[in-house]
Design brief:
The chain has about 400 residues and is of the alpha+beta class. Helix content is about 20%, strand content about 30%. The longest helix has 29 residues.
Amino acid sequence: MSESTGGPKPEWDAARGEWVSGAYRWDATAGQWVLRETTPQAPHAASPQAPHAASPQPLPGTGTPPPGKKLPTGALIGIIAGGLVVVLAVVLGIVFAVRAVGPGRSTAGPQEVVSDYFAALTAGDSKKALSYLDAKPADTTLLTDEALAASAAAGPIADVVVTASETSGTAYSVPVTVEYTIGGEQVSGQFEAVDFERDGSWTLGRGTIDIYVGDDFSGLNPTVNGVAIDSDTITVFPGVVELAIDNANYALTGTTTTIVSDPDDYSAEFDADVELSDAGLTTFRGAVNDAVTACIASKSLVAGCGIDLPDVLSDGTKIIDGTITRTLRAETQATLANLEPEEIFGDPTQVRATYLGGLDVTADCEVNGQRQTGCTFLFLPTLGSPLVDMTTEPPVVRWD
């Protein structure tokens, strides 16, 4: 310690062989000033080898200053700066901790986060359920409170037992098995809790299920759990999923309801077919019969319905336009009375009828320049298989 720092001036105590400053002495071994002993010590005997007084040790220049000495300006600045660093570290640490957890993450463990997810599902809270997912699905059309309510009405989730694996998984991924019931039916699902940032904030890697619907219901206003869909693949929460169509002319047959419970199960599907409803069948039959009636009534060569006539036949006979009478044969009338559509493939709004049958035709004709009445003909066009466009009102009937 330099002499310019204030306090008593250090002096060499030859009797003790040490530097002293007031009530303190310099401990060379410890490298600091310490209190001097108050008990008098016996005088040192002169050493035969040291007839002269002990040589003073170098004046100490470092170590803890004796009490009463002022701290250098640099030391004060260092202490203040160090305190600020500690305060800033604490503040920044708090901010980082808040950001690390953040919205949508949970400090609960793998088992707890899955339990919380199912609690949100049973409560019908879609927003809270989605907050437990590590990433929100791209399509959330059916991830709504409305869809959850419809699912619960068809078959509520209950008896949930969540078990996290203790033998498999990693530091950032733990498989979690869930045993539960949907509408009283026992089901199970394998879920994955993840903590990719390894900060103790666990989320669900996947908690929803994808189902391929296909495009067989295009144009029929399909709905799932009462919510309109416009995609061939849907994403849903675990539960009951019911497919329907909002079109009075059509009905679904087959399996229209399925239960989904496991995000890793990609086999869920609807084994449903489209057919005309009773109302749709009536509309279909009416459209075809009306078209045939109009065509049969025509006296012209061009009548429509695929039964137009040529003005000259292959043998040279000329049919006189405006004199034609067309009559449905008995079997054709029976077919029209009980008309059935063909099985629907592809676009369900385009419905084809079965083959209708033939008809008889009489007309005035000209043979070898002579006009005759009541002419009959063979091998003339017949009523084929009409295609009915059910998207219009009234439906449009087209013929091959």
